[in-house]
Design goal:
heterodimer, A: 114 residues, mainly beta, seven-stranded mixed β-sheet, globular, B: six-stranded mixed β-sheet, 11 strands
């Protein structure tokens, strides 16, 4: 299957700092990528749809200014958690699709805000 | 609004048993259904993808079936092994929300040696 690389896998930061998470499609081009958030023992919640060359589409209740998404190329999307606070601590996962059917996921990023 | 439910929420079995995980969805207008595996603190690994026109898919010891009209899918795991221990998620793509997967609640599986 296709490979989606996500970095970093784990980050610990102080409250008020910004954290950038990268999601790369290694062996295919992805015009659309997706960002999810997962709380412990819960299922994934779609945060936003990242579109190459245009603005991201955010799900209801997700703050655009808090979670900045940039999809500057067909192989890279970034999620920046701005001015992170402890309540932003969570597991973030990205995904991408080759042919608009099957999705492939990154390995996830565990964010801990102190 | 599509809702996806998985039963049981947790399952503990001895090694070697065959087992069935259940997934039900409320809106039968789906594009496809995908089963994933998630290990603790890790991302999702795609196990099987079933197109809406298909009834089942097989990969090794795994077999997934789909009954769109009744809104059900099952994941059958044959001869379970301790390495199968993980959380299993089913997800559907509705026809209306083309790439917006709706995830199930997950089944946490523990296979004991």
């Amino acid at each position: 299957g296709a490979v989606v690389s996500q970095h970093p896998s784990r980050v610990i930061c102080k409250s008020g700092t910004s954290v950038k998470i990268e999601c790369r499609s290694l062996d295919f081009q992805a015009t659309t990528m997706f960002w999810y958030r997962q709380f412990p023992k819960k299922s994934l919640m779609l945060m936003a749809t990242s579109n190459e060359g245009s603005k991201a589409t955010y799900e209801q209740g997700v703050e655009k200014d808090k979670f900045l998404i940039n999809h500057a190329s067909l192989t890279l999307s970034t999620l920046t958690v701005t001015s992170a606070h402890p309540e932003d601590s969570s597991f973030y996962i990205c995904s991408a699709s080759i042919d608009r059917s099957e999705l492939f996921f990154g390995s996830g990023t565990q964010l801990s805000v102190l | 609004k599509q809702e996806v439910t998985q039963i049981p929420a947790a399952l503990s079995v001895p090694e070697g048993e065959n087992l069935v995980l259940n997934c039900s969805f409320t809106d039968s207008a789906i594009y496809n259904l995908q089963w994933f595996r998630q290990d603790p603190g890790k991302g999702l690994t795609s196990l099987l993808l079933i197109q809406s026109s298909q009834r089942e898919q097989t990969s090794g010891r795994l077999n997934a079936s789909l009954d769109k009209s009744s809104g059900r899918s099952t994941l059958y795991i044959a001869a379970s092994q301790p390495g199968d221990s993980a959380t299993y998620l089913c997800a559907v793509i509705p026809n209306t929300g083309f790439q917006k997967l709706v995830f199930g609640t997950g089944t946490r599986l523990l296979v004991s040696p």
